[in-house]
Each structure stands twice: as structure tokens, then as C-alpha cells.
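Quick log. Single chain, no ligands specified.
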Amino acid sequence: MKKQHLFYFSILSLLMAFLFLSGTSGCGSGGNNGGGANGGGNNGGGNNGGGANTVPLSITVTGIGEGAVTSDLGGINCSKAGGTCQTSLSSGSQVTLTATAAPGYFFNGWLGGACPKIGTCTLSLNAATAVQASFINIAYQSSRDLDPAQDAPNNPSALNLWFSNADKSNSHALAATAFDSFRPIFSPDGDKLSFVSNRPVNGASMASQSHNLWVVNADGSDAHSLTALDVTDVNIASGSVYPQQWSPNGGKILFTSTRDINSGTAATANLTNNLWVIDADGSNLMVLAGLDVADVNSGGGQWSPDGSKILFSSTRNTDKTPSANPNNDSNIWLMNADGSNPEPLTQITTLDTFANFPIWSPDGSQIAFESNRSLSDDQNAAPTAKNIWIADADGNNIRHLTQKTAISSSKPQWSPDGSLIAFLSNQDIDDPNATTPGPTNIWAIKADGSEEAFPLTRKKGGGAFIQA
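-> predicted structure:
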């Protein structure tokens, strides 16, 4: 992996910032309630004093960031400093919770109460309910000097994990070492990060031959490896733990690895990538629908919002035999979270054609992905440039959102409210009809395809480095 003395911005982070600044509803961190980010007391007093016809509601604010949760009933105005906030409401009451990030922070999402990941949370209270709201800052990787005041590379030139507020304040390295660490991902409660690193494992002093999956507390303490391998060919170049994803409830982490599907302690004979899942405490490592067959690789796993399904891309044969797809084309697949019942959602077999990077809509009803399949109805016609595609969650109703034949669009990300899809594109930002590729920028398009795509960044040359 090439080291960069640069910040690494994610598509989703920039899209969230755009939605916040433009006032788009449903972003969670842009709610318009009366409670400030510093909140107030634990609650404003329930509108019922308890009793047979009331049910308790508790709110806990978590994560490394700062923010507040307010309610339209029950007087909740809860901050992290206030601890768990509680109120009681009449059974059957409908209450809407709004999360508002303090300046410089982001709302990371809800846990519990059948709340959506992001946005406002409306609850129908029929039983005691507990909800968490987490707030985070920006986590990224950089080879910059460990002194944030120095505009220079780090020495030794290792990639480290960094934190920064959205306003660029409070920039600092997290658990810095002389070894590479990258791809930090916050847990749903915002209290931990998973990341990939070649730090030494099992008491060694030298860099690991493998890139392993690690977890660290958001304050930098207790960094530890979950996979702890030091084996040749189980590494990031072969698609080891990259990228990883927390389950919606924070209990498991999904990742891709070339570990042997039987022993788990060496590389697969064919250096095949498979999807694996492990509990967040490092227990219960399990391969999902694993194969060790030449030219069969699976990766890019994505939990469904309810945690019951996993989307992924794979070059396995779409007839579901343990063999490679003709021409080694990759397709979008869907399986249960335990690895059972893998089914192809696309059926591409044409040479040099693929579908990759699937991602769920926030409500789980649709998926988006990138593909260079033909823009015609025949998915096995001659390929074209990469475009952004969308489909129902069962693979039906597939259609393209972008329709370029010489310009690439890739790596889609949904906005928190599901109304927009952001993506990378080398489309000329000043001429949407240009057929000559320009610098890569982040673009967005309405998920229903009702309007043309528009740029969120406006890079015209060197400088900023944008990575999905």
C-alpha cells in the first residue's frame, strides 16, 4: 500500500458533512430541536409519574464525541455528561428522539429500540425501552508527523491512526507505533475502533508478516489483535482483513481473509479470499460460505441493517457449484448472516465484466453497487465504463443511475436518509457531457435517479487524495 503524507477522507464522511451544511433532513446531526449539544440534566421529568399504565424510556449517550438527544415527549435532553437519562410515558405513546452533534462532531447512530441507524428515531412505547446514541469525531490514517503542528512526514514513515474534529481542531494520533495501521472503523456505540495493522503479534518485536484485524478503545487504550496471525501470504495484498465492518449491534466484525478455511492458521492453498466473522472480543472465528478453489474470491461483505443478511461480491459460479464463474467475472451475492443459502443477485458471465462494492440502503430495501455491465437490458452484452447501479434487496428491478460509456463511477455510499448516493467519478466537474476523464472527485445523485449527478468536491489537479 502506498504511504501518503495526506489525509484520507471517506465518501460517507464528506457526504454527511454536505448534508449537514445544506440542512438536508434526516441526517441525525442536523436536527432542529430546542436542546443544545451540551444538553442539560438527565431528564426534564416524565409526563407521567410511573404506575400501571406507564413504561420507562432510558437514553444513554456514548462514543468519543459530544452531542445531545432530545425528545418531543417526556422532556428528555440528554448529554454524555448527564449519564443515562430516564423518563416514563403512557403505554402506547409515540415519542420521537432527535440526536444533535456538538460542533466538530458527527452523530454515529442509534442502538436499541428498533431505531434506524441514522436520522430521527420514532418509538411506540409498549414496554420498557433502552436506546443508545453515539457521537464520534473523524478517524483517518496518515503518515504525517506525530506532532500535529508539523507539516512533515512521520519518521519512521509509518501510517498511524488519527482523530480530528470536523472543524480540524483536536487533531491527534491514536496509539501511534512504528508499524502501519489503517482503515479505522468506529463501533456502533462509538467507544471502539477496528483497524488493520502489521503490528507485532504473539509477543514478537518485528512487524507481522500478516495484516491483522485489531480493536482499540476510542481513547487509544487496550489495542489488541483479534486475528493474531504472523503467516506469509495472509496479508492485505491478498485481501486479508480489508475492509472490515461491525455488525449493526456491535457484537461481531465481518472481514475478508486468505486464511485457510480448515485450519485457519495458514493461507488458503489457492490464496482464495473468503468472508469471515469474529465476535468483537476475538472469540468464535468462523468462515462464511467458504471455498478454496482456484480463481474464486469473495469480499466486500456488508451487513444488512437488521444484521440478518450479508451482501458480498464473488467470482464463484452463479450456478452455485464450487467452481469459478466463467471468465472469472464477479457478481453480487446475498447470504444469511451465518453463511447459509448464498444466492447470486446478478448473473454476469461476459469477459471482463463485473459487479462489485454492494451496499445496503439505510432501510434495507435496496442495494447499490458498481458495475461495468452493458447499459442495455442484457447484462451479458459487451461491457462499458463503470457505472452506479441500484436494485431491490432481492436483486429484482436492477437499473443504472449513471450512464457513462467513457467515464468511470464507482464505490457508492448511501446518504443517511437514503435520498442520495455518493460515489467516486472522474467526470469533468465543469462539463458533465465531457468524455475525457478528469481528476477523481466525490459526486452525488438522487437515489431515485430523478436528477443529474452533482460534484461534492471540486479537485482539478493534484493535492487532495480521496479514498473510499
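Helices lie at 11-22.
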